[in-house]
Specification:
Diaminopimelate Epimerase, Chain A, domain 1; about 325 residues; alpha/beta; Urease, subunit C, domain 1
């Protein structure tokens, strides 16, 4: 059996160039493929669709579509392809994706050694003393499923401060250089809502859970607004590439939301984003006073909900439990 080749289509996102013809009229395109799924129970599969401007105007047989299209309509044929509606990710972090694309990618590392090798490779191309950051490691994929310790990482990358977050973002691993810069020692107390993982002697192992991540994060140089803006642009392109035409952005700050609006006004925001305001008091007050906003910038942005935080996540052992974790009997999160 041949593997299916898919195209994801949402006209308002995928084909913005069709919005106007050379004469200022709404341009049209007839799109055909082997299969076009509509997600419409009354007509789940069709032969063709008609795109008019930035909207899907009709879906049906090729004969029906041609009858409704103008003579100037462009025809786009995708033989051997299947077209499905654009997908929506119900829990995403758009800026986080963009920043991750610029960092060390640790997703899928099947061993701690493999994760270290990826970090060391990035460090080899980074000026001595500069930070190396990344995300995506998951100790549940490794033998023993235990949190890593900094010792092996520090031996492999001694000349750069390193901080790499776990796949869920609720924990991170620092090397010895990063902890030295942050001033983290055995005497450093766990912050409220956070945990510094320690060895039997009370020394930090390098793993910081939930609010404890701020102990390292506060000394990592912040990115500029221009860098964050370009990270968002890159994230949108990456999302579109994999068929994501809409997301629910689970917690963003006012400065980031303002970047979203700026890009949307400039017609550089090819995604539909239902944004949740992160539970920072000043931002919540600002957006509460502003009031809920829906369907802004031709259906690109919604800002009408707030994300609040209660505890951590299961994978990083920070979620609050009634009983201890089976592999960490002293920890209830």
């Amino acid at each position: 059996m041949k593997s299916a080749r898919f195209l994801w289509l949402a006209a308002a996102v995928a084909i913005p160039a069709l919005s106007r013809s050379a004469h200022g009229q709404q341009a049209e395109a007839i799109v055909t493929a082997d299969r076009i799924y509509t997600a419409d129970d009354f007509r789940p599969v069709v032969e063709a669709i008609l795109i008019r401007g930035d909207r899907i105007a009709f879906a049906g047989s090729l004969r029906e579509v041609r009858a409704k299209a103008s003579r100037s309509a462009t025809t786009l044929n995708f033989p051997g392809r299947t077209i499905v509606p654009g997908m929506v990710d119900a829990h995403a972090h758009l800026l986080g994706l963009g920043q991750a694309l610029l960092q060390v990618q640790l997703q899928g590392a099947s061993t701690y050694d493999e994760a270290i090798a990826r970090i060391a490779a990035r460090a080899a191309t980074t000026r001595k003393g500069e930070w190396v950051t990344g995300r995506g490691w998951d100790q549940n994929l490794w033998a023993g499923k235990e949190f890593p310790t900094e010792s092996a990482l520090s031996r492999s990358v001694p000349d750069h401060p390193v901080y790499v977050q776990r796949v869920d973002g609720h924990a991170g691993l620092a090397n010895a250089t990063a902890m030295k810069i942050a001033g983290v020692t055995a005497s450093t107390r766990d912050p409220e809502g956070g945990l510094i993982v320690r060895d039997a002697k009370g020394n930090p192992t390098g793993v910081f859970v939930d609010n404890a991540q701020s102990l390292i994060g506060r000394v990592i140089p912040s990115t500029s607004r221009a860098q964050r803006r370009e990270a968002v642009v890159g994230a949108i392109a990456e999302a579109n590439k994999w068929g994501l035409t809409g997301i629910h952005d689970a917690g963003e700050s006012r400065p980031v939301i303002e970047i979203y609006e700026e890009l949307a006004r400039a017609n550089r925001y090819n995604i539909r984003n239902f944004v949740m305001v992160s539970g920072d008091s000043a931002d919540v007050i600002y957006y509460t006073n502003r009031g809920p906003r829906s369907d802004m910038y031709n259906g690109r942005l919604w800002v009408r909900s707030i994300k609040l935080y209660a505890d951590g996540a299961l994978g990083s052992r920070g979620a609050a439990m009634l009983e201890p974790y089976s592999d960490d009997p002293k920890n209830k999160g």
